[in-house]
UniProtKB/TrEMBL annotation:
Protein name: TetR/AcrR family transcriptional regulator
One Pfam family of this chain: TetR_C_41
Residues in HTH tetR-type domain copies: 11-71
Gene3D superfamilies in UniProt: Tetracycline Repressor, domain 2
DNA-binding region: 34-53
Record keywords, A-Z: DNA-binding
Amino acid sequence: MARRPRADMIAETRASLIAAARAAFGRVGYAAASMDEMTAAAGLTRGALYHHFGDKKGLFAAVIDQIDAEMTVRLRVVSAKAGDRWTGFRDECAAYLAMALEPEIQRIMLRDGPAVLGDPWSWPIQNDCIRMMARSLEALVAEGVLMPLDPEAVATLIFGATQHAAQWIAHAPDPEAALKGATDAFSAMLDGLLRKPS
């Protein structure tokens, strides 16, 4: 029987640990998740966790990266369904806010994420998001849809607003009501960016 390539075995081990950790972090949260239980669920040892991720925090960061990548794919699908670039941008922002109602995203990304990894502004994935958003805004300015403002500045402001609104929704006593309020306010804020007829 042919021996499996080492890269495949490494990828499988990492994927197993991330899947087990994601289930545990989503179910009981970072603080209560046991490394022994996570590695046992993956059929591996603590040594494998330390080798691939350094520690529990490193494994948590890998889970954050995975969920963020999935959120990005979902948001691009939302945007692609729109009839025009501006509607797609708005729909994508609204969909991001709505994700704050999902239990896994609430617990891992919006509650435990900042508590464990620090301010989300320091996460590398956030900078990528701002760059992508700035490119979209730059295109909308070029098309004459938006006022001629600095796309990076606008992207940073919008990103900050969506981040804080998502945190607010996730921690609100009535998340559904918070989502409605945030979505309505955010839509009005985006309207202010539109180029006014001369």
